Amino acid sequence: MAPVRPVPSTRPVPWSTQEFEARLRDKGAGYHIHHPFNVRLNSGLCSPAQVRGWIANRFYYQWCIPQKDAAVLANCPDREVRREWMIRLLDHDGQGDFEGDNAGGLEAWTQLALAAGLDRDALWRLDHVQPAVRFACDAYVNFVRHAPWQEAVCSSLTEMFAPQIHKDRLATWPRHYPWIAADGLSYFRSRIPLAQRDVDHGLAVTLAHFTTHEQQLRALDILQFKLDVLWSMLDAIEKAYPQ
Length: 243
Hints:
Heme Oxygenase, Chain A; mainly alpha; 11 helices
């Protein structure tokens, strides 16, 4: 009897860790740093009303970030991951005495809004939030609540592209928008080192979990979804504040 020959596998070979990471990073070509509204914003071409509209609507994204992080914590059974992820929640909601550097990112964004002339009460009532911005941010939070926690972590990897957008704002806003008090830009300064820390953790989880070719394609789709959320927010803001 002739020996039975194994049937060659037709399953796609997964990318190496290096190739997978490179493909994730290539998604930066669709980051909202390239959106026409953001390009105008950082080029000094936006009116005060447009800048304030962007700040007030982006506040809703900041508002949702701690809820997103809490959902990751609620779904994650790994204590070590929870301990590391919890830092993100405290970064945004604040900790300790909630003063100074302990006030958190949500308060830092509030200070940006105040420096730009927005009213705190109206900001925190979410009076300025456009329906499409709310829809996009809520879609992100709902995804994280219902997805496996590793997929939720993967969706956070847009932070890989965030440091440059913060650097651009710090480099151009003082010159283009001198009517915004300089101390209002502290959020952007604080996020540059924190974003890199968060990327290191999120990327390690993603590279370790998404190991088959199908899973790696799924990770790219998840990251694209998050990029679409951020891009859609700017679409809505651009339409709501034409001048």
